[in-house]
Write a structure and sequence with these properties.
The chain is mainly α and 319 residues long. 73% of the residues lie in helices and 0% in strands. The chain contains nine helices and no strands. The longest helix has 47 residues. The radius of gyration is 21 Å and the shape is globular.
């Protein structure tokens, strides 16, 4: 009888810890998003600027991140720099609840660590990639709305197709009414490799950067600085791997649809890839890469530092 109670208690505690791990990932991401969303707005517009037009054959409203922030603030007001914030918070919560949650659960349960406590490259990549893919699928409706809201701009500086949604919940309701559930998951296919590749590269590089620093006794007594330096490397690697899929996801999410709810610019991910390559060249897949790092760099630092501190707090409260 007592043995059964012990097993039940242990099982319950394990499930509760798993849920806590997943919630910590989502909360950490929402915290980081509050500070980095303005750069996300600029990044979205940089990725849509010159859509399917050869270089030099389109107007350039946004030259880089500082210029984009200035132009948007001047033309639309400072609040425009937080366009799509509720949708972005929803996307980041969905993405990182799975992404960081699956990774943390796998790490804590020993699925991706060896006998020496080090994270396995293959195991870490699989756990992070699986979590990132699941989180990206779950968050696709929010990414779709986020992209459309952030692309909406004053006529003088508009790029890409201009939707007319008045807010996150209005957009979700409007898309569902017009296009059904399928419409809410428009652009999901590039989201899967975007989440998987981005998460794998970020989490593995983050874990290994921290281990490399520990082995050399760098910041070994400062968990906060260790997380900060590790997160910076994670942001660089993630940006390089993620950007092509991010551009395609943005393009597919923002394109207009016809009366049959089919995209009028791209038929799907492969069609988007080929049209971008033919019309804009290979460089198009790295449009907004500077903005992506300037967002992902601080975002990764804030996210992973917050996540690490929540893990430390959790362990303290349980001890």
């Amino acid at each position: 009888m007592a043995g059964n109670m012990t097993r039940t208690s242990t099982s319950k505690d394990g499930v509760l810890r798993d849920v806590t791990d997943m919630a910590m990932g989502g909360i950490s991401a929402m915290f980081a998003t509050l500070f980095t969303n303005p750069i996300e707005v600029v990044k979205t517009r940089l990725q849509l600027q010159g859509e399917l037009a050869a270089r030099g054959k389109h107007a350039v409203f946004y030259r880089n991140v500082p210029h984009g922030l200035f132009v948007i603030g001047r033309a639309e007001g400072l609040l425009a720099l937080q366009s799509g914030l509720p949708a972005m918070l929803g996307f980041q919560f969905c993405l990182n609840t799975f992404r960081l949650g699956v990774y943390r659960i796998s790490e804590r349960r020993g699925f991706i660590t060896g006998t020496d406590g080090r994270v396995s490259v293959v195991g870490g990549a699989i756990a992070a990639g699986l979590g990132g893919a699941l989180g990206s699928i779950a968050g696709t409706p929010f990414f779709l709305v986020k992209t459309r809201l952030q692309a909406q701009a004053a006529k003088a500086i508009a790029v890409g197709h201009q939707h007319t949604h008045s807010g996150t919940f209005n957009a979700l309701k409007d898309i569902y009414r017009r296009e059904g559930v399928k419409g809410l998951f428009r652009g999901v296919y590039p989201q899967i490799p975007r989440g998987a590749v981005g998460s794998s590269s970020q989490m593995v590089s983050f874990a290994y950067a921290k281990q490399w620093l520990r082995d050399r006794d760098i910041c070994a007594t400062s968990p906060l600085m260790l997380s900060f330096l590790g997160a910076n490397l994670g942001g660089i690697v993630m940006t390089f791997c993620l950007n092509p899929f991010d551009v395609m996801a943005t393009r597919l999410s923002n394109q207009p649809v016809d009366s049959n709810n089919r995209g009028t610019l791209y038929r799907g991910m492969s069609d988007c890839f080929l049209k971008m390559l033919k019309s804009e060249g290979a460089g198009a897949f790295y449009k907004g890469v500077g903005a992506n790092y300037l967002r992902l760099g601080p975002h990764t630092v804030l996210l992973l530092v917050c996540w690490d501190q929540l893990k430390i707090l959790e362990e303290f409260l349980r001890s």
